[in-house]
């Protein structure tokens, strides 16, 4: 089988590339499993100072793969793994991000996106709720803005994503994202590994509290919603490229 996640290493930075462009890097059970394994390998590697998470194609991640979704429990385990990792994880986004992909983005410590990237919480439009992705999102994102985008499924641009705290910064329409990332990666290379570990622990304490207290209930909600008749109809309508019956 072709690998869905590729690992490269240069001067202390491990780059993990999601490489399933035919599915828009959707979160299949296989992709989630491969990414979890790659993150674990990087976490154990003494020569890795930080991780860059990026992608091939025009989409960072389209959310759950409706043909082969991971279990909510497995996805939550991956999100927590990224948050708990003692090494910083930097998202490099040059394409669109949807639904569950936004949970993956929120689990990262730093996120930079090009000005052409777009974002949307599309769950409500297919009859489900952004349940487990709320674990890293709610502690890190502006609550009023999140209410709007959770409830409407509207898409928004990188500038808005930066304003509401979903990403760290945008590279702008014409900027080279790697030039924007260069000082970030240089700073991580100059930092003491122990200092990075302890500093990340400070920054993620509130996020991990949400996992400790809310994960079980949100996994239950996710399972319930995805198994509902509304979700079955919503996902069928999405795959058939038509409106579900509740659209007015």
Structure notes:
The protein has helices at residues 29-44, 72-84, 100-107, 134-140, 143-152, 158-163, 177-190, 193-226, 229-239; strands spanning 5-10, 13-18, 50-55, 59-61, 89-93, 96-98, 110-113, 118-120, 155-157, 169-170. The chain is α/β, with parallel strands linked by helices and 248 residues long. It has a single domain (1-171, 195-248), classed as 2-enoyl-CoA Hydratase, Chain A, domain 1, CATH 3.90.226.10. The model has no long low-confidence stretch (mean pLDDT 96).
Topology:
Layout: E1 5-10, E2 13-18, H1 29-44, E3 50-55, E4 59-61, H2 72-84, E5 89-93, E6 96-98, H3 100-107, E7 110-113, E8 118-120, H4 134-140, H5 143-152, E9 155-157, H6 158-163, E10 169-170, H7 177-190, H8 193-226, H9 229-239
Parallel strand pairs: 2-3, 3-5, 4-6, 5-7, 6-8, 7-10
Antiparallel strand pairs: 1-2, 8-9
Q: Segments where pLDDT lies below 50 for 5+ residues?
A: none
Shape: globular
Identify the CATH class.
Alpha Beta
Mean pLDDT: 96
Number of helices: 9
Q: Report the end-to-end length measured between terminal Cα atoms.
A: 44 Å
- The SSE string, one letter per element, is EEHEEHEEHEEHHEHEHHH
Number of strands: 10
**How many individual domains?**
1
CATH superfamily: 2-enoyl-CoA Hydratase, Chain A, domain 1
Measured on Cα atoms, how large is the radius of gyration? 17 Å
What share of the residues does DSSP label as strand, in percent? 15-25%
* SSE-based structural type: alpha/beta
Tell me which CATH architecture applies here. Alpha-Beta Complex
């Amino acid at each position: 089988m072709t690998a869905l996640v590729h690992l490269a290493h240069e001067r202390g930075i491990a780059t993990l590339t999601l490489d399933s462009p035919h599915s828009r890097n959707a979160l299949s059970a296989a992709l989630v499993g491969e990414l979890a394994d790659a993150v674990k390998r990087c976490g154990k590697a003494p020569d890795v100072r930080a991780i860059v998470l990026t992608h091939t194609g025009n989409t960072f991640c389209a959310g759950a793969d409706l043909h082969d979704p991971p279990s909510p429990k497995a996805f939550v385990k991956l999100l927590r793994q990224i948050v708990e990792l003692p090494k910083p994880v930097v998202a490099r986004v040059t394409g669109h991000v949807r639904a569950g992909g936004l949970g993956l983005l929120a689990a990262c410590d730093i996120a930079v996106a090009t000005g052409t990237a777009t974002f949307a919480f599309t769950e409500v439009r297919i009859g489900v709720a952004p349940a487990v992705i709320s674990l890293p999102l709610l502690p890190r994102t502006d609550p009023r803005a999140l209410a709007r985008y959770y409830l409407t499924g509207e898409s928004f641009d990188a500038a808005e994503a930066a304003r509401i705290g979903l990403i760290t910064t945008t590279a702008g329409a014409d900027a080279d994202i790697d030039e924007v990332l260069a000082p970030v990666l240089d700073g991580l290379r100059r930092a003491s590994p122990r200092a990075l570990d302890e500093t990340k622990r400070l920054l993620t304490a509130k996020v991990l509290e949400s996992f400790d207290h809310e994960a079980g209930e949100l996994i239950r909600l996710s399972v319930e919603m995805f198994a509902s008749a509304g979700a079955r109809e919503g996902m069928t309508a999405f795959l058939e490229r038509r409106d579900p019956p509740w659209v007015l």
